[in-house]
Amino acid sequence: MTLIPVPKPKGVHNPGRPVNALLQAQIHHLRHAERNLPLRYRTEIYANAIRTEGEAAAYIREVTEAIHRAHEDAAKERAKSAAKGKRGLTIAAAAERPARKHSSKAKNKKQQQ
Fold first, then answer.
1. Residue 71 CB-half CA count within 13 A
2. How far is it, in rounded angstroms, from Cα 36 to Cα 63?
3. According to the model, what pLDDT value does residue 87 have?
4. What is the DSSP letter of 88?
């Protein structure tokens, strides 16, 4: 097999360049993903203030690392629960349903008979 040399393009990474539409869309999606994380994993970066590719790269890195940490911690918790013999989620018991009241139409029919 013949190897074809591909030169590295110059000027691809420019941290001072303004963000383009693709980066803005990625920031928007990551901001949404970050909102779904527990508070202890969220970054303190104000995503609306991101103006350059360098700022975008830092934000993307922080949120990606936070998502990975959250998943790792959740996996550890699941492993602890499995080791203790617990299965599934612990949820509160539901209240009993109140007795269903008969409609006034049904009462009227019974009274007429």
1. 8
2. 11
3. 63
4. S
